[in-house]
Amino acid sequence: MKYIITGVCGLLGSQILKRLCKEGHQVIGIDNLFSGYYTNVYEGIETFIEEDLNNFSAVKNALEEAGAHNADAIIHCAALPYEGVSVYSPHLISKNIVSATTSVGALAIHFKIPRVINFSSMARYGDQIPPFIEDMKPLGVDPYGLSKIHAEEHLNLLSDIHGINVTHVVPHNVSGPH
User: From residue 86, how far is each of 8, 96, 101, 143, 145 by CA, in Å?
Assistant: First the structure.
């Protein structure tokens, strides 16, 4: 299969990249290197695009060149993982979560990619008491959590309109190599 991974230089994206490449899948990776590291890019990657998802035209053109029309899914890991900073820089966080995720949805529509797997955050649950379960109402209590909720809602709406299969993954306390 062929995948596009956003945030491929970050913790989640780089680990998914490595696994997919080892399984023999083709991967196009995108990262702006704002909070990820190029050294995290696994050697089996087909194409690496150093670009910001908010620069939609540049990303779209680079994906055209990389042959994204036959991709099976976009795995969206890109985000600024700075929940605490979000109360001081809400525009930066919102732009790099909501706007970037909207770009991912638009890219899926443009390239007719049938599936988007979106990595969200447990920040979507706010101050609710754990354990968090999928049918809990999202209650973001800071710009980061609210941005993750809005990003999910954008993808859900695009799914309803364009028939893209959207899955939201909500990891909790991610840690590991890289």
Answer: 22, 11, 17, 5, 9
Distance CA 132, CA 38 (A): 33
Q: Give the single-character DSSP code of 9.
A: T
Reduced to 3 states (helix: H, G, I; strand: E, B; else coil), residue 114 is: coil
N residues, the chain: 178
Q: What is the DSSP letter of 70?
A: G
Q: Quick count: other Cβ atoms within 10 Å of Cβ 87?
A: 12
Closest CA to 62 of 36, 34, 28: 28
Query: Measured on CA atoms in the order 176, 154, 71, 7, is the torsion positive or negative?
Result: negative
State the Rg of the chain over Cα.
15
DSSP state for residue 56 in the 8-state scheme: H
Q: For the segment 117-159, what is each residue's pLDDT rounded down to a tens digit?
A: 999 999 999 999 888 888 899 999 999 999 999 999 999 999 9
| pLDDT, position 73 | 98
H or E element in which residue 49 lies: strand 47-50
**What pTM value is reported for the model?**
0.95
Q: Which residues, 6 or more positions from 21, have their beta carbon under 8 angstroms from its beta carbon?
A: 27, 42, 43, 44, 45
Tokens of 115: 């599936």
